[in-house]
Design goal:
Structural class of chain B: alpha/beta
CATH class of chain A: Alpha Beta
Distance between the termini of chain A: 26 Å
Largest sheet of chain A: 8 strands, mixed
Oligomer: heterodimer
Number of domains of chain B: 3
Structural class of chain A: alpha/beta
Strand content of chain B: 5-15%
CATH superfamily of chain A: Phosphohistidine domain
Low-confidence stretches of chain A: 151-158
Shape of chain A: globular
Order of helices and strands of chain B: HHEEHEHHEHHEEHEHEHEHEHHEHEHEH
C-alpha cells in the first residue's frame, strides 16, 4: 500500500473517482443538508454552504437519526447525491442508506484519522472491492469541473 | 454471511420478488458489518415519513405492495407520519405532501403494517423486553428499548425495518451481540436533573462525549431512578447528539445492576459533568428572546406530559402558536381527560400521529414565517438548526410563558 492509499474495514458499492470534500465533522442527511439545493446547510457544519453533489465525502462519523436510510435513496433518484461517503466511524443507518441508495461507502481505518489524511479538494479513487481510498496523482484523472470552497483549516487545503 | 436454506431461497427469489428485495438489502448490510448470520426478530418499527422517503421511497414501497405477494410476517408498526391530516392547514402543508403521505399509508397497509404512527411505542404499544431481539427504527425508540428495556436492536432505518418485517429477521451484528453491549465510556455526574429539558440536555452532553454509534456510555452519580418520560428525553437527546444506541445507568438500567456488570469498573472516569454543563448547553441555543412558535414534540408527549402542560395552560391566553404533539394512542385519553380542551382553550393545538421535525419542517418555516422556535426537547433543538430555524431550549414552564408573552424570559 502506498502512502496515499488507505484501507478500510468496511466497504460496499462500486468503484468511483471524484473530488474529495473533507471535514473533521459528522454527517446526517436530515440534520446537515439542504437536499433540494444539494448543499450542506447546518450553520455549525464545517462544510456549510458547499455542494455535496457528485463529491466524495470524507468525514469523521455518521450522526443523527434514521432518516438518512431513506434520504440517500431519494437523493439518488434526483441525481443530487454524493458519489461516495468515507467515514472514520459509520453507523448502521448510513450503511443501510448507502445500500438502498447505491452509494459507495468505506468506513473504519485502523489507527488512521482518514479526514486528516485526504486533502480537501483532492481527486481520489474509492474502490470498495479493494476496500481502499487512494489519492490520485495529477495525470490520473481529468481536471475537475470546479474546485470546492475551502473548509476545515486544520487540513490547510485550498 | 451464513444463510439458512430458507434465507438462501429468499435471496434466490424462490419466495418471490418482495422477499428477494428485502433479503438482498439485508445481506448487503450484514456483509458490510461482518454479520455471521441472521437473528429472528419479534417486532419491527418503521421510520417512514414522506419528507424522508420522497417520491422515490414511496414508489419503492408501492412496488413491494403492488407485487401482491403478502406482507410482513411479524408485528410491524410505524413511526410518526409527516402530518396530522386534521391539522395540516394550520401547518401550512401543501396538498402534494398530504397526497404523498396517503400513498405511503396505502402501501404500508397493503403490506400489513400497522399504522401506529408513534415514536413512543415503548410507552404506548408494546415495550420490548430484556434480551428480545427487535428491528426498531427511530433512534429514540432504539436507545430506550436497548437501555431501559434491555432489548436488542440496532438503528434500523426504514428500508431495513421494512425488510425485517417481511423476512422476520435481521443481520446479527452490533447491539444484537453481547460483545457490543459492555460500556466503553465512563462518565460521572454530580447533579440529577429535575425538568425534562434538563434531562434532554444531560443526555445530549453524554451523546456528544460518546461521539459515535459504537460507544456505550455508563453514567454514574444519579441520585434517583428517572421516570419513563425523563429517560425518554435523556435517551432521545443522547441518540440525536451522539448517534448513541445504548447507555447504562448502574443500579437503574437492567444490564447494569452494578458498574462491574457492564465493565465500567475497568474504565477510568473519562468525564465529569454537572449542572454548569447543562446550563452552558442551554445558553448555547439562547440566541434571541424573540419567539415565533412553541413546540412540544420529539419525542411525542406522554399522557403525563400533556397533563402537566394542561395545568400550565390554565388561565393563559397565547400570543404565539403552541403545538403539543402526541401519539394516536395517547390523544384519545388526552381528549377524554380534558387536557386537550385546556391546552386549546389557551390557544394551543394538540396534534397526533406526527412529529414536528418529520413533517416538512423547512416548508412549514417558509409557509408560516416561523424561525425562532422554543421547545423543551433537546433533540429538537439539535435537529432544527439545519432546517433554518433558530431553536431554543427551555423548560416546559418557560415555553408556555413564552407562548403567552411572545418572548423567552
Amino acid at each position: 500500500m502506498s502512502a496515499t492509499t488507505y484501507t478500510a474495514r468496511h466497504a460496499m458499492g462500486r468503484r468511483v473517482v471524484g473530488q474529495a470534500l473533507v471535514a473533521s465533522d459528522g454527517f446526517s442527511a436530515r440534520y446537515d443538508l439542504n437536499r433540494l439545493q444539494g448543499v450542506f446547510s447546518r450553520p455549525a457544519h464545517k462544510l456549510v454552504g458547499q455542494s455535496y453533489v457528485d463529491r466524495i465525502l470524507v468525514l469523521d462519523t455518521a450522526k443523527g437519526g434514521v432518516a438518512t436510510a431513506w434520504m440517500l435513496h431519494e437523493m439518488r433518484s434526483r441525481n443530487m447525491v454524493p458519489s461516495a461517503i468515507v467515514f472514520n466511524t459509520v453507523n448502521t443507518i448510513l450503511a443501510q442508506g448507502a445500500a438502498l441508495g447505491d452509494v459507495s461507502m468505506l468506513a473504519g481505518f485502523d489507527g488512521v484519522d482518514i479526514t486528516a489524511q485526504i486533502p480537501h479538494g483532492a481527486m481520489v479513487e474509492v474502490d470498495p472491492d479493494a476496500r481502499t481510498i487512494r489519492v490520485l496523482a495529477p495525470g490520473e484523472y481529468p481536471a475537475p469541473s470546479a474546485a470546492p470552497e475551502g473548509t476545515n483549516k486544520v487540513h490547510g487545503q485550498r | 454471511m451464513k444463510l439458512s436454506p430458507e434465507e438462501q431461497a429468499m435471496l434466490d427469489g424462490e419466495a418471490g420478488t418482495v422477499l428477494q428485495t428485502a433479503m438482498a438489502h439485508q445481506v448487503k448490510v450484514g456483509r458490510f458489518f461482518g454479520a455471521a448470520d441472521f437473528v429472528p426478530v419479534t417486532q419491527a418499527h418503521v421510520m417512514a415519513d414522506t419528507e424522508s422517503l420522497g417520491q422515490a421511497g414511496v414508489m419503492w414501497l408501492e412496488k413491494l405492495a403492488d407485487a401482491n405477494q403478502g406482507g410482513v410476517r411479524i408485528p410491524t408498526i410505524t413511526d410518526p407520519r409527516g402530518t396530522d391530516f386534521e391539522k395540516a392547514s394550520l401547518l401550512g402543508q401543501a396538498d402534494w405532501m398530504l397526497e404523498l403521505e396517503r400513498r405511503a399509508i396505502d402501501a404500508f397497509r397493503r403490506l400489513g403494517v400497522s399504522m401506529t404512527d408513534t415514536c413512543i411505542n415503548y410507552q404506548t404499544v408494546l415495550a420490548a423486553t430484556r434480551g428480545e431481539h427487535v428491528a426498531f427504527g427511530d433512534t429514540g425508540v432504539v436507545i430506550y428499548s436497548n437501555s431501559v428495556g434491555g432489548a436488542r436492536s440496532n438503528f434500523e432505518g426504514g428500508p431495513s425495518a421494512v425488510s425485517a418485517g417481511l423476512t422476520g429477521r435481521t443481520p446479527r451484528y452490533g447491539y444484537h451481540l453481547d460483545s457490543h453491549r459492555q460500556a466503553t465510556l465512563r462518565i460521572r455526574t454530580d447533579w440529577t436533573p429535575t425538568a425534562l429539558d434538563e434531562w434532554g440536555a444531560l443526555g445530549g452532553i453524554v451523546g456528544r462525549l460518546a461521539g459515535n454509534y459504537w460507544q456505550v456510555p455508563v453514567l454514574e452519580g444519579l441520585e434517583r431512578a428517572p421516570t419513563s418520560d425523563e429517560l425518554k428525553h435523556f435517551g432521545a437527546a443522547m441518540a440525536s447528539f451522539g448517534s448513541t444506541a445504548l447507555f447504562h445507568l448502574p443500579g437503574i438500567t437492567p444490564e447494569a445492576h452494578s458498574l462491574a456488570d457492564v465493565g465500567g469498573d475497568r474504565l477510568p472516569v473519562a468525564h465529569r459533568i454537572g449542572r454548569a454543563d447543562v446550563d452552558a448547553l442551554k445558553r448555547a441555543y439562547a440566541i434571541d428572546r424573540k419567539v415565533d412558535v412553541v413546540v412540544f414534540s420529539a419525542p411525542q408527549l406522554s399522557l403525563y406530559e400533556l397533563r402537566e402542560l394542561a395545568g400550565l395552560c390554565d388561565g393563559r391566553r397565547f400570543r404565539r402558536p403552541l403545538l403539543a404533539i402526541t401519539s394516536p394512542q395517547v390523544k384519545p385519553d388526552c381528549d377524554r381527560f380534558g387536557y386537550t380542551a385546556r391546552i386549546e382553550q389557551a390557544g394551543g393545538t394538540v396534534m397526533a400521529g406526527m412529529c414536528f421535525y418529520q413533517s416538512y419542517a423547512r416548508e412549514i418555516s417558509e409557509a408560516k414565517g416561523w424561525k425562532y422556535l422554543v421547545t423543551n426537547s433537546a433533540k429538537l433543538v439539535n435537529i432544527l438548526g439545519g432546517y433554518g430555524y433558530v431553536p431554543m431550549l427551555a423548560s416546559m414552564q418557560a415555553c408556555v410563558q413564552a407562548a403567552e408573552t411572545g418572548e423567552l424570559a
